[in-house]
Amino acid sequence: MISKSFFLRQSPPSVFTLCIVAGLLGFISICAPTLVRSDLISTGPIFPWVANSFTMVTPFSYVLLMFCGYFLGLLNSSKPWELGLSTVWFFPVLALIEKSLVITSHRFFALEFLFWLWLGLAGVAGVYLARLRRSNRL
User: What pTM did the predictor assign?
Assistant: First the structure.
């Protein structure tokens, strides 16, 4: 049995590791709820499951992103904006790859960044909830 003091003695994860974990958790948070649905039509040229995920973002996705931010906030004491927005860094990278391979895709690229920021706010809220929990105010 692992005691609670075992986790307190461990060093915090590196920034690189934290960014990778945050990006993967955010990717799963957005894509997992739509993978369950079978009535969606593939719309993206290279990453159709990601395109489907953004056309059908559910409230459950926001809850999952908030949970990811909460988890990251418990792991690290970095700035809440950095931790929360790191949950959605994966999507602009995929969009840049898709845009470089298929020139006609992502015509509203600037608006997509605003949408990713909006999604990242759920992660930021989760980090702030973790901070309140760590300070014993919640």
Answer: 0.76
